[in-house]
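Re-run with default settings, no changes from the original entry. Doing this only to confirm the output is reproducible before filing.
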Amino acid sequence: MSAVSDLLAECQAKGIRLLPAGNGGLTVDASRGVLTNELMEQLRVYKPELVADLRVADHRDDDRFEEWVELRRPDGGLSWIHPQHADADLEVIDLPAACPECGRLEMWQTLAGNWRCERCDPPTKSWELMRLAERLKNDPTQWRVPRGQHLK
C-alpha cells in the first residue's frame, strides 16, 4: 500500500472525514483530540495526492449517469440524456443575454419566465417562498405565518 492509501485508511479508522474543497483544498472533519500534530503534518505533506484520490473516488462511486447516452441536438450541440427520455420531445432553451449591468451570465428565471441577474438582482424573495413551501411540505400544520411574523 502507498503512503496515501495508508493515510486514508488511518483517517477512516479514526473517524476522520476528508473532503476535497475548492482550489485544491482539503476539508478535515474530526472529533476533538483525534487529530494529532503528526497526522496534521502528514495531511499537509500528502494533500495534493489526497485531494486527487478523493476526487477520483467521488466520481467512481457515482453511477447515476452510467446509463446515459449521447444525444445530438438539432442545433448540432451534444447533450447527454437518460434512455428513458430519449424519445421525448425536448425543448432547447436559448441562453439569456448577459446582464447589462455587470456582464455576467449568472442568471435565474422567475416563475413568470423573466431572466434576472444572480448578482445584481438576487432571488431573495423566491428563496423565502421556496423555504416556506418546503416547510409546509414537511409540516402541513404550519400553513399559516403568525400575524406580525415575517418569512425567514
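The chain has a mean pLDDT of 78. Helices lie at 3-13, 37-45, 47-60, 124-138.
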